[in-house]
């Protein structure tokens, strides 16, 4: 029995030494120290021993058990440590590696100019109004004093969808819609940015789809001088003191009197070139005092209320601001063009 115990110890210690993972080690524990294990088996057979042999074998069995137990514990600690080290090695992060650059997007130059103009007018107490791009003939023309068959409709060659519905040719229908909502009560003070569509031939300064920003103020005692002061403040803020501005008498069916505002050409400084078609000026804005018929059609008493309105093309303004010589650059999404406007 003594040899049997010693044999068991040796066998167990060998298996413990060979175990390369925690599961195998646990199997060894169960096999040797479990209730059905060989040591328990040996102890069960002690009844057959003589009274002199019994304490000696009992003590030896305990020694064997303890030896196996402590070898198991030692090996378990070693395997656990190895596992932690393996995990740490596999999860190691090299904090000295260079980071991957984050590619930042940027505002499109047109968006930037639109936001700059919006900020300027919001600062003067205007709110932003929007309207549909697919518009009723009524709001695009009729409510703006342009009844069907009016020759001035030809000024804005239109994309019709049905006889009554078209792609809006300007942002002025938002004026008509906003005034209607006010139900004859002022003040109204809005700007309306948005896309517009015309059957214009694309060239350096014309596009069939472009952007406009409309402005409208309606209240008691609004005068032409208010319009002039507002447009002058706008021109100074956007173009600086250097650039020249010209007011020309003009005609729009929805304003009376009407004016057109030109800015001296950025490309030639006003001498005449292909960008300004030899005139030295680029038209940026149409404006005027809201026609009494337009006020009345929207439900305002034109004896009590007056107003001014203006409509500008932000593409032309962005071209002046950034010295862009062709409007088509805005729509082609050429990164070489767009990246020139990246902020530092
Ligand atoms: C109008 O559209 C009027 N609704 C503006 C207005 C509003 C006048 C309120 C009075 C009161 P006009 O057709 O001139 O006006 O266009 C206004 C601006 O849009 C022009 O000054 C120009 O800067 C821009 N624009 C016109 N056609 C084009 C085009 N094809 N491509 C790019 N910009 C254009």
From TrEMBL:
One Pfam family this sequence matches: tRNA-synt_2d
Cofactor, how bound (note): Binds 2 magnesium ions per tetramer.
GO molecular-function terms, A-Z: ATP binding; catalytic activity, acting on a protein; magnesium ion binding; phenylalanine-tRNA ligase activity; transferase activity; tRNA binding
Assigned EC number: 6.1.1.20
GO cellular component: cytoplasm
Subcellular compartments: Cytoplasm
Coiled-coil blocks: 61-92
Domain Aminoacyl-transfer RNA synthetases class-II family profile span(s) in chain numbering: 111-320
Reaction(s) the record says it catalyses: tRNA(Phe) + L-phenylalanine + ATP = L-phenylalanyl-tRNA(Phe) + AMP + diphosphate + H(+)
Cofactor entry: Mg(2+)
InterPro entries noted in UniProt: aa-tRNA-synth_II, aa-tRNA-synth_II/BPL/LPL, Phe-tRNA-synth_IIc_asu, Phe-tRNA_ligase_II_N, Phe_tRNA_ligase_alpha1_bac, Phenylalanyl-tRNA_Synthase, tRNA-bd_arm
Keywords for this protein: Aminoacyl-tRNA synthetase, ATP-binding, Coiled coil, Cytoplasm, Ligase, Magnesium, Metal-binding, Nucleotide-binding, Protein biosynthesis
Subunit structure: Tetramer of two alpha and two beta subunits.
Protein name, as recorded: Phenylalanine--tRNA ligase alpha subunit
Organism encoding this protein: Paranoxybacillus vitaminiphilus
Lineage, highest ranks first: Bacteria, Bacillati, Bacillota, Bacilli, Bacillales
């Amino acid at each position: 029995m003594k040899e049997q115990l010693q044999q068991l110890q040796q066998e167990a210690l060998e298996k413990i030494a060979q175990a390369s993972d925690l599961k195998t080690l646990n199997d060894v524990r169960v096999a040797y120290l479990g209730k059905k294990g060989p040591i328990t088996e040996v102890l069960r057979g002690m009844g057959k021993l003589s009274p002199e042999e019994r304490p000696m074998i009992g003590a030896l069995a305990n020694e064997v058990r303890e030896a196996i137990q402590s070898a198991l514990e030692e090996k378990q600690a070693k395997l656990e440590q190895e596992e932690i080290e393996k995990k740490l090695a596999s999860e190691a992060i090299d904090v000295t590696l260079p980071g991957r650059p984050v590619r930042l997007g940027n505002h499109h130059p047109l968006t930037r100019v639109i936001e700059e103009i919006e900020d300027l007018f919001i600062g003067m107490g205007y709110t932003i109004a929007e309207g549909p791009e697919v518009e009723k003939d009524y709001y695009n023309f009729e409510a703006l004093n342009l009844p069907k068959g009016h020759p001035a409709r030809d000024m804005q060659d239109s994309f019709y969808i049905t006889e009554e519905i078209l792609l809006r040719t300007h942002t002025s229908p938002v004026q008509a819609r906003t005034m209607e909502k006010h139900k004859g009560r002022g003040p109204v003070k809005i700007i309306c940015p948005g896309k517009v569509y015309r059957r214009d031939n694309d060239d350096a300064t014309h596009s069939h789809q472009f952007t406009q920003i409309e402005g409208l103020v309606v209240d008691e005692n609004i005068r032409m001088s208010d319009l002039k002061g507002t447009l002058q403040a706008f021109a100074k803020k956007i173009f600086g003191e250097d650039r020249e501005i010209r007011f020309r008498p003009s005609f729009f069916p929805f304003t009376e009197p009407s004016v057109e505002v030109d800015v001296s050409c950025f490309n030639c400084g006003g001498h005449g070139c292909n960008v300004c078609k030899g005139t030295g000026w680029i038209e940026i804005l149409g404006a005027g005092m809201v026609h009494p018929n337009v006020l009345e059609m929207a439900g305002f008493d034109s004896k009590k209320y007056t107003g001014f309105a203006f409509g500008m093309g932000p593409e032309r303004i962005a071209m002046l601001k950034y010295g862009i010589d062709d409007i088509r650059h805005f729509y082609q999404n050429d990164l070489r063009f767009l990246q020139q406007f990246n902020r530092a």
